Amino acid sequence: MAKGFQSLPGFRDFRPEDCAVRNYLFRTFREVARRYGFLEYETPLLEPTELYLKKSGGELSSQLFRFEDQGGRDITLRPEVTASLGRLAATVQRNYQKPIRWFEIGQCFRYEKPQKGRTREFYQFNVDLLGESNSGADAELIALSIELMRELGFLSGDYVIRLSDRSYWQAFGEKKGLSEEQTAELLQIVDKLERNKPEVTEENLSSLGLTADEVNTAIEQPEALGENLDNILANLEARGMRDEVEVDLSIVRGLAYYTGVVFEVFDARKSLRAVAGGGRYDTLISSLSDGSVDLPAAGFAIGDVVIRHLIEETPHAAAKMQEALEADKACDVFIVLADESKQLDALGLASKLRSAGIAVTYPLAPTKVGKQFKQAEQSGAQLARVGGNEFPELAMKTLSSRTEETITADADIADSILKRLNTTS
Amino acid sequence: MAKGFQSLPGFRDFRPEDCAVRNYLFRTFREVARRYGFLEYETPLLEPTELYLKKSGGELSSQLFRFEDQGGRDITLRPEVTASLGRLAATVQRNYQKPIRWFEIGQCFRYEKPQKGRTREFYQFNVDLLGESNSGADAELIALSIELMRELGFLSGDYVIRLSDRSYWQAFGEKKGLSEEQTAELLQIVDKLERNKPEVTEENLSSLGLTADEVNTAIEQPEALGENLDNILANLEARGMRDEVEVDLSIVRGLAYYTGVVFEVFDARKSLRAVAGGGRYDTLISSLSDGSVDLPAAGFAIGDVVIRHLIEETPHAAAKMQEALEADKACDVFIVLADESKQLDALGLASKLRSAGIAVTYPLAPTKVGKQFKQAEQSGAQLARVGGNEFPELAMKTLSSRTEETITADADIADSILKRLNTTS
Fold first, then answer.
1. B2 pLDDT exceeds 50?
2. Is there a contact between A33 and A40 (Cβ–Cβ < 8 Å)?
3. C-alpha span between B326 and A384 (Å, rounded)
4. pTM score, whole prediction
5. Tens digit of pLDDT for each residue in B207-239?
6. Which residue ranges make up each domain of chain B?
7. Which listed site, A230, A232, B32, B300, has its alpha carbon 20 to 30 Å from B189?
8. Is 60 exceeded by the pLDDT of residue B115?
9. Among the four given CATH numbers 3.40.50.10540, 3.40.250.10, 3.40.50.2300, 3.30.930.10, the one describing domain A16-324
10. Chain A contacts of B40, Cβ < 8 Å?
11. Cβ–Cβ contact A235 with B under 8 A
12. Are B39 and A16 a contacting pair at CB < 8 A?
């Protein structure tokens, strides 16, 4: 370990091999969003703190990187992106045709205890559909999340979409004569069903005049799912995506701002983690704009940390990623300089090849030829020898197959090498 | 203007049309770095404050977004990336073949007065070469900066590389009998030549026993440039890049950590701004690792704000960008649903096309056919009509040319449409 500075706990350095994985995720996010007609946007990493206090509430507000700037403003590093999206959409939505299909990829910050699968910064892929209250929008988002999992190399049994609808619990509450506040309380209890002990749940429910039996029956033997869930299931069936979805009414998502359909992408194997999640938040934009803009909305988010672990633990997804990373070579051609006096010729060649889009490396300083060969071999590139016996011709060598041929260093050399790269890679 | 929350002064929202420009810059940064054999890395946005106090000093340390986290740590949002790179390189460099070619694209934060061309956050493209002290490394970086300007659509006369070498002033100082501290002072005076009044410069120089005449002569009629600059000029000449470079010994770059060759990419037209800059910093990594790692290094950085302005002000560069942005359409195919009862057929079609990589939009909720046509037209996509007279055949329409043909909705429909898109776009 070198002496000197360390990075902060919970903050990651991305060495090139880590950054390549990050970029593979980002590329896949962007590609799937593109297929679904979504456009990328970005909002600031810093926002006025009240934006988060107003919106998120609860657990998040105790995990903020919050401080005062030099101008005395109370500001916060964003813990999530939906609040900023709501702020931005309220300001500019009138310029865009509805429904608005937008996505974002960027970092978020939460002061949590660092551990496996949990860092203090993480990247999030946010996908949102604004201006459409029909459940066709919810189905579209769920379909996008399934397409993303497929594109990342996951198979049907690897994950499951757990689908639910807060409206179901609203109707349940009304039937049981609960007030709005009591129904909100009920949602909190349902959200913690898996985490709390049965006796705690029973006690919490009894204060609402309910029993655990009633609630469990409502989850396990629902009388009717309601129009939204029925439509969504038929919609996904038509796309060939029904098998990936499971109605699970115990899912309500913690955050207070969800208003209707909610869902999670759930790891279906050993660790049973939520990989992604989201839902409908029809009142958030109105609330962030003091009621001046009323725009129904739904969205979901997926973080980079859990999905990376899940890929690495799932052999077929890991293999697909590995294949993509290997196609992303650092270098196509390594120029070996066999005769130092030909250095300027090598530079001219490098320049010509690079302008044609070929990735080229060469020794920046005088280097023994043996060492150059070794470096070329490590780089995984093809080797072009300048200044050998064949000069001014060029010897091209594929190190993996140990084959060599001579190429004429004429005006078309970039084309010849491009063809060579395409046939041997 | 909607009521409600505003973003912080100096922080930008990237609506899709802004984000597309940002992504065009990022794509070009990545493409040029790839051709030069550089690999992408990333470091945290937050670092311990002392990392910046130790390295940068001067002006930067008064512009920090600096605060205490919940664990009582004195932390700072990075104002630049080289300090983090030095920290990371000191820790992991032994695992990588030298020279290390690394680049980074990420946000930085400085508390400055917001104005045109200056924001409180900006993206920076950082390119660094570690482990090579030969001036061939400096030339490689300068060449990369020129290739970047070319790739962004700039022509020779639009910009100039101002090239200099701090060693020249070291030699000048030694000849004049200056101490190390006095030479450092001289560099500060030279750095401010353009900004300070002549009488201030004269006075500052006289305290070192020098005159403005002596210094101006050293800049304008140098006796010899030294081996580094001579080699770099010959190197760039061999690449066909000599015309873009101008030796200008008045360039020394403000930051204290530069040790040798320095350069700036300079707007050669009306506004005369520095667009990018960098140089050699051979002692920084040693200093950040308490002397445990000694790695010569050189690098440069370019921000997104000034280069975007310069592109927009330069017609041929703006046209090249516009062309790239237009190729990046939001949507390939808009499915118009002529008969609501065929909604599930439309979903199946959307799903099939998307899996084949085609970007598809369709109405998420029941929408009048006339309105769907209007939406399709605005999206710029080709139109596929489902449920019209020709159903189960599919009517494909190119809105720009008003031509229509019928396509068979069979197993190969995605292929047929892909072929259609390639021939008509």
1. no
2. yes
3. 38
4. 0.95
5. 999 999 999 999 999 989 999 999 999 999 999
6. 16-324, 330-424
7. B300
8. yes
9. 3.30.930.10
10. 16, 19-20, 23
11. yes
12. yes
